[in-house]
Hints:
By secondary structure, the protein is an alpha/beta fold. Helices cover 40% and strands 19% of the residues. It folds into two domains: 3-77, Orthogonal Bundle (Arc Repressor Mutant, subunit A); 103-289, Dna Topoisomerase Vi A Subunit, Chain: A, domain 2 (3-Layer(aba) Sandwich), CATH 3.40.1360. The model is unreliable at 1-6, 78-83 and 87-99 (pLDDT under 50). Strands 7-4-9-8-10-11 form a six-stranded mixed beta sheet.
Amino acid sequence: xxEAGKDPFAALLGKLRDNKTxxxxxxxxxxEEKLKPLFQSEVLTKIPRGRGxxxxxxxxxxxxxxxxxxxxxxxxxxxxxxMTRSESTCTFRNSKKRSRxxxxxxxxxxxGESTLLYRNTGHTLNTARQTELFSVTSIMLKEDExxxxxxxxxxxxxxxEVFTAFHHLKPQNTIAVYTGGRIHRLLLxxxxxxxxxxxxxxxYGDYDPAGLGEYxxxxxxxxxxxxxFIPPDLNALVRKYGSEILLEKSAHLIPRLSATGDKAxxxxxxxxxxxxxxxxxxxxxxxxES
Length: 290
C-alpha cells in the first residue's frame, strides 16, 4: 500500500497545498519535524495571525515537488483505510465507509502483438485474440498476488466511449486499458511495477486539468516512459468543440499543474487557457467515426 494510504501527514500536506495556509496549532510535533526541511528552505513560513501563528506556503512549486517525492501515487488516497468493503459493512453498516478494495477487474482491448504473461504459472493471455472474438477481455488485479508481465505499448484510456471505439484510432501492438476516470491504486501499482517496466504508456484522457492530473499520476509512479497523447490539431479541436464549463469544473487544479514543469502538460494548458475551454476526449473518436 502507498505511503499516502497510511499516513495522515498526507492530509496535512493537502491542506497546505490547497489552502496555502493553516493554523500552526493544527500541526503536531511529529508533523512539524517532517516539515522541517520545508521551513529551513523557506518553502513554509510562520507568521503572526490574530492571537496565534499561521503557517503559509511561500513557494508552492517546491511544496508540490516535496509532495510528489513522498507520495507519488497522490495524496488524495490518504482518506482510505485498510478495511475491505465486507469488513467495513460489518463494522460501520456501510460498505463504502472507510473501505478499500483488495481486488479489481481491469478491462482490456488488445491489438496486434499484445500477450500478457503470468510468469508464476506460465499462463498467457492473448488479448488481441480475445478482443477479436469478444471485443474485450479482462484481468483481475489482487492485493499481494502475482502480476502479469507486458512489455509492449499500453494505452490508458479514461473514458468508456473512447475505450470501446479505440480500434478507430488504429492502434498497433497495443493493449488499451480502461481506467474509468481516476485510476485505482491497484491498477496504478501494476502500471508502475517491474512487470510493466519495459512497457511504454500513452495516456488518453480528457484535455482538462483533471485529465492532465491523471497523466501526471501515472508518469510520477512510473518515473518515466510515459507520454500524453496530444493530437496535432488540438488547438483547433479545443476552439471548435471545447467547453468553458468543462474547464471551470477543475480550474482549481491549474496552479498546481503549472508548477510541475512537465512539457506536455504545459503545452496543453497553454491551449486550454488560450481558448478558455477544455475538451472531452470523445471528440477524437467521433471524428474518426464520421
